[in-house]
């Protein structure tokens, strides 16, 4: 049964119960409804009001999540990461049959999302970092919007969710929502990917000790309401592994040929443990292997962020393969290096597969952490000239009349381009889609948009126009001197 028809069945079922007032108002205007929810709930889920949907009025909204009293609310809001030792917020899950359904959660008819690769991942992966205070506020996170967003995604076939112990309440929100959706989408119908070892912004906030790794994964299991995780990554290993590289910023593609020795990537260097940092990564990886053998984890991976991770990711993947038990890293997730401004990852795809034998690659942040948008987040490390180039790119997309502007062009590029490097791809019209793209999703509308762009790209709709505008944007970055440029983390040790 297609997701659409599954939805229609549900749609009719809920029409039979007295919720039409809600559905009626949701049909009246999604934007107004979102504004209503954002303004704060009138009807709150509490022990005294266990069925708030029965008392809800058309101009009221509900609060899905009930944070327990034990936890200081402000600590929960202000702290990006909930420490392993601190009390955890608990959340009340509404009986799923009663979770209001809305028109904005109906998938658009069209091409089904591809499921592909070694681990049968969907072409798009749900980025659950959106369920944190870095991207959304409390009233959003405590509303029904996360549930609607996840439900919409699942109905489209976005059946893999990425999160982390580091993303504030993300695991808790996701776990709550998925538990609520269990009757429509049982645990076996999707994959859960989380991360461990990173608990804050700077190096001091990384803890790769085997004890912490185990406790972190155990907490993730509890938060996500599951007894197994499909993937657990060591989060942003470049902060922990030794820095073997001749420079910190700029472009690191020479690591693959001329400078391979300086990056520890030459033939014969694979099994080198360069220092304590490397050893800490290996010890953490060994603990994850134990948890894999205990059946708690299916696949183990490593991730790298936007500083200088690619040579380090390759070096660590080679190291893991070349020391006992000589087993390759299962899966690798790369942030911010497969997008319009920086596509350095593409050069690393072949060696990651051929030399490090990694079965599954995933790329994330097609918008380069919000860089490729008209409103770049204030915390983004991009320097002023690069920000100016982004402004010029926004204008170029507007001048070309491209619907959706720069973010649309950037999403399409990430989905289109990375798969031209798939081992099975013959040419650029025959994408193999071995490499899923992880997209952060906050509201149902973003799910619809992402799938729409994926379909356009997959079906080569307006391909030459799309390529033309992509090239314009790439030229703007090239002229600014920031094409393919990576920045050093602002928090690296001196
Ligand atoms: C929360 O975010 C929404 C947008 O998602 C915004 O409209 C609303 O004003 C914000 N609420 C608060 C209390 O900041
Ligand atoms: C960037 O510009 C230089 C010349 O200024 C050119 O040689 C190079 O091909 C350009 N790169 C891309 C990717 O367009």
From TrEMBL:
<feature type="transmembrane region" description="Helical">
    <location>
        <begin position="12"/>
        <end position="34"/>
    </location>
</feature>
<dbReference type="GO" id="GO:0045290">
    <property type="term" value="F:D-arabinose 1-dehydrogenase [NAD(P)+] activity"/>
</dbReference>
<dbReference type="GO" id="GO:0005829">
    <property type="term" value="C:cytosol"/>
</dbReference>
<dbReference type="Pfam" id="PF06522">
    <property type="entry name" value="B12D"/>
</dbReference>
<feature type="domain" description="NADP-dependent oxidoreductase">
    <location>
        <begin position="124"/>
        <end position="458"/>
    </location>
</feature>
<dbReference type="InterPro" id="IPR010530">
    <property type="entry name" value="B12D"/>
</dbReference>
<dbReference type="GO" id="GO:0070485">
    <property type="term" value="P:dehydro-D-arabinono-1,4-lactone biosynthetic process"/>
</dbReference>
<keyword id="KW-0812">Transmembrane</keyword>
<protein>
    <recommendedName>
        <fullName>NADP-dependent oxidoreductase domain-containing protein</fullName>
    </recommendedName>
</protein>
<keyword id="KW-0472">Membrane</keyword>
<keyword id="KW-1133">Transmembrane helix</keyword>
<dbReference type="InterPro" id="IPR020471">
    <property type="entry name" value="AKR"/>
</dbReference>
<dbReference type="Pfam" id="PF00248">
    <property type="entry name" value="Aldo_ket_red"/>
</dbReference>
<dbReference type="InterPro" id="IPR023210">
    <property type="entry name" value="NADP_OxRdtase_dom"/>
</dbReference>
<dbReference type="InterPro" id="IPR036812">
    <property type="entry name" value="NAD(P)_OxRdtase_dom_sf"/>
</dbReference>
